[in-house]
Structure formats: C-alpha cells, structure tokens
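Propose amino acids for all 436 sites.
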C-alpha cells in the first residue's frame, strides 16, 4: 500500500515494486487531488501520477478494475509484474487522511490474511503509527542512490608508495584496483610530495598530472589562496576548461562558495571564458517561512543569497583601494553576477555562463536534472552543498539530488568532484562544527 508522500516524491513509484501488487486507498487519491495545483515540484509529480493512473485505467471496465490493473502493460521499466488495486473502505469515515490510510491498511490486512501487507511511506510519523498498530511499514527505498552516505564517492585517493610505477615532478603513474579510479580523481602520495589529477586510465594503471599550487602568493585566484590540499584541488578543477561539471561537498566553513565565486570572477572578468555568473539555490527556509517577498525575480532571491553577498565583500576589496574604489568594484562585480530562481529554469538555455548552484543538497534528483540540462555550449555548472544539512522534507543524504549527481557524474571525463574536509572560516566555526 502506497502513501501519498511516496507518489508526491516519485511518480514512477507505481512501477518500481517488481512482482508485488499495489493498493491505493481512496484517501490517497483524494490527497493527490488536493495537491495537484501549483507550480511546485510536488504538484508536477502529482499531475504525472494522475496521468499514469489515467493511462492504466484507459478503457478498463469496472470488472477489470476490480480484479486489478496489470502494471507491466504501460511501464517502461520492464520490472513491474504486479497488479494495481484501488481500495474502497467498507464504511465511510470522516477522519484525517492519515487515519483513513491506516484504517484502509488494517482492513486490507484483515481481508487478506494469506499475504503480507506493507505500508510504504516517506512520512516517518505515519510509519510509527502503523507499526504501533501491528502493521508492517517501510520507507520508500527505490530512489536511494546509496545504502549508506559514507559510501559516497569522495573524489580523492591517497597513493601508497608500493603502488607507484613511475614518478616525476609533473606526472605520476600508479597501479589501481577495479572501480577505484575515475576521470579527474584527485590523488596525492603518502609522502605529500606529489598532488595531481588523473588524466588517463588504463586497465590496471592510471596517469595523473601535477596540479598548480594555488597556496603560494603568486598563484592566488582573484586574491584567494588555497589553505589546504582539498581547496587546491578544487581551484584546479574550477579553472579547468575541460571540466564542465563540478561538485563540491563540505561542512560549513570549508570555503565552497568563496572558491567557486573567486574562480568564476577570474574566468569571467579576467580570462573572459564566460559572459556572466549565474547563481541559484533552493529556497527552503530553516525556520518559519517569512512569506511572499516583493519585487522582481532577482529582488525576491536576494534574501536567499546571503552567502553570495558575504563572499563578495571579501572578493570585492582590492588591497590599498579607497572606499570609493571598493564601492565601484562591488558595483562591477554585481553587474556580472545574476541571481536566478529555480522556479523559472524550465525551457531556458544558458550559453557561456558560469552557473553556481548553492545548497544543492536540498534539491531532488529530478530538479537537478532539470537545471543541468539547461546548460548550453561553453557553460560550466558548479554544485555546492553539504548532505548533512538537508532541510527539504522527505529528502535524506542517500536520496538527495546532490548525492545522485556525484554518483552519476564520476565516470564522465568532463566532470569532477572534491570533498572539502577542513573548515577554514574561523576557529569558532571549526569548534562549533565539531562540538555541536
């Protein structure tokens, strides 16, 4: 039995339960009808579920509906072999929808003692209530990218001395294990004398080229120097014209936004690789929602872009500049940075843009796909986030869109990934991250 939350999260859930029969209570259908209006991702998903159900019903007779609709007839997944039943309660009830769903599940269990009934829901509270009533309840697992977030690709590898085949100042050749090495993997030797990025992968060996050391004064990017090896790797991949997609993961204070913005400004204003920088993020509040905001699209998004403004204060202050010079620099920088809402991305194409997606862990896989497929020729997309800080309901570290793209892009030669480990914001922020 599927709960409304599952279908609102993934419309294709109807076809992802292999040989099992599915039951939809009337309460779920009523809840879907309530949630179909609007432009949110959940509303779009509800409308897609309605289309799926309409295709399944087709010209089916009442008798065919009573005996169950074969899911395999219309699915593209090829694995759904069960049947879909619409569950009508024996007596009407005027209770909240969750109680209706639980009642329907209990009635189904009583009427079908020969089979195991499982209530599948993304709603933790509903699963707790179901188990308290003696029902078997489970989370929806089909959208999980990984079983455990600790298995997520880190983008880095420490090469032990006994695996080195050949080493020079500019290159490193080393032995690899199956499924261990991917394009643009960041590697370092145990002795710390070599840091590089994998450029060639063969059957049992990989070749890495040395990176530019942005920790020294002469190699600063828009006045920003790397403070640790991970930040150095990030800057090298951010500046690499062959890398079209880059994901940066890290806890608060590791420098994700500062590095991405500094590299974007350098490539937009100095190198002229891109026409402008586009910044966007998911508008999910941490506390109480402050309601509708006045103004244009950019004015509405400005309160959500505090991280951008904070970093521009750092990047827009040239050394020995007067107060007037600093103000003029800020105006120039802001003129080349556009703030856009995710709600208006459908149908657009971004040409020669440097796109920064902040707080990407709050986006579902489908939302990130919608955004990334907007990229036209000459565009680079940088996704920033921390999967330990997810504010979107029903998303977890293993189902986040950021986790999804990190896992799917690691095989592509024009993508990179860096996990930033050390906080560099302040000693207060570092201690808070560890102690709180």
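Proposal:
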């Amino acid at each position: 039995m599927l709960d409304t939350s599952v279908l609102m999260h993934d419309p294709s859930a109807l076809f992802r339960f292999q040989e099992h029969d599915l039951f939809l209570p009337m309460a779920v259908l009523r809840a879907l009808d309530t949630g179909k209006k609007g432009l949110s991702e959940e509303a779009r998903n509800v409308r897609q579920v309605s289309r799926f159900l309409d295709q399944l019903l087709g010209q089916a007779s009442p008798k065919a509906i009573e005996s169950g609709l074969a899911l395999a007839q219309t699915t593209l997944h090829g694995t759904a072999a069960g049947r879909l039943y619409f569950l009508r309660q024996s007596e009407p009830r005027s209770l909240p929808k969750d109680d209706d769903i639980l009642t329907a599940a209990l009635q189904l269990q009583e009427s079908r003692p020969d089979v195991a009934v499982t209530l599948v829901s993304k709603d933790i509270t509903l699963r707790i209530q179901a188990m308290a009533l003696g029902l078997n309840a489970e989370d929806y697992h089909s959208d999980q990218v990984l079983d455990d977030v600790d298995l997520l690709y880190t983008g880095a590898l420490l090469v032990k001395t006994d695996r080195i085949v050949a080493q020079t100042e500019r290159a490193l050749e080393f032995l690899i294990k199956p499924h261990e090495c991917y394009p643009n993997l960041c590697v370092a030797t145990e002795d710390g004398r070599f840091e590089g990025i994998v450029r060639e992968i063969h059957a049992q060996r990989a070749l890495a080229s040395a990176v530019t050391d942005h920790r020294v004064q002469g190699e600063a990017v828009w006045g920003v120097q790397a403070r640790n090896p991970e930040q150095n790797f990030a800057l090298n991949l951010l500046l690499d014209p062959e890398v079209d997609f880059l994901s940066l993961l890290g806890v608060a204070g590791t420098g994700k936004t500062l590095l991405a913005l500094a590299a974007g400004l350098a490539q937009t204003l100095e190198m002229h690789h891109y026409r402008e920088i586009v910044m966007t993020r998911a508008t999910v509040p941490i506390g109480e929602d402050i309601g509708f905001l006045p103004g244009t699209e950019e004015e509405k998004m400005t309160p959500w872009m505090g991280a951008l403004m904070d970093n521009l204060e750092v990047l827009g202050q040239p050394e020995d500049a007067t107060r007037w010079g600093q103000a003029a620099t800020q105006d120039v920088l802001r003129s080349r940075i556009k703030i856009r809402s995710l709600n208006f991305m459908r149908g657009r194409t971004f040409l020669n843009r440097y796109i920064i997606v902040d707080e990407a862990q709050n986006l579902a896989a489908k939302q990130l796909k919608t955004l990334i497929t907007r990229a036209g020729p000459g565009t680079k997309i940088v996704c920033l986030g921390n999967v330990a800080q997810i504010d979107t309901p029903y998303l977890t570290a293993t189902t986040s869109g950021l986790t999804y793209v990190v896992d799917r892009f690691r095989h592509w030669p024009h993508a990179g990934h860096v996990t930033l480990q050390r906080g560099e914001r302040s000693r207060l922020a570092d201690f808070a991250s560890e102690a709180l």
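DSSP finds 14 helices and 17 strands in the chain. The domain at 4-138 is CATH 3.40.50.1010 (Rossmann fold).
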